[in-house]
Specification:
It contains two helices and nine strands, in the order αβββαββββββ. The chain has 112 residues and is mostly beta strands. It starts with 5 loop residues before the first helix and ends in a 14-residue tail after the last strand.
């Protein structure tokens, strides 16, 4: 593992957002959902693709808080342009569990 400096870490904009729209993404190579995530008035709503179909349904994701990287450049994923990276961890079976705040915090809050 390579060490980074505090300045390296400070460049990553990890922000809290709320999932406001979900839909299946059948064109994706691996099972995924299309997400719209509201990161508050400063950042706004951003699009993401997330391979989280093993543990979550589209309905269960609506309204959930997530942690996302909002300062990556947009990335084309099939016909969908992803504008942020929703974060998560692989469990023992390789399924992705979302990284989420355990309390309600304002949208757009930055991870410290």
């Amino acid at each position: 593992m390579e060490n980074i400096t505090w300045n390296d870490f400070a460049k990553v904009e990890l922000r809290v957002g709320r999932i406001v729209k979900t839909e299946r993404f059948p064109e994706a190579r691996k099972p995924a959902y299309k997400l719209l995530v509201d990161f508050g008035p400063e950042i706004g709503v951003k699009k993401s693709s997330a391979q989280i179909t093993d543990l979550y349904t589209t309905e269960a994701l609506l309204g959930r808080l997530v942690v996302g990287v909002v300062n990556f450049p947009p990335k084309q994923i099939g016909p969908w342009m992803s504008e942020c990276l929703v974060t998560g961890f692989h469990d023992a079976q390789g399924r992705v569990a979302l990284c989420v705040p355990d309390q309600d915090v304002p949208l757009g809050s930055k991870l410290l």
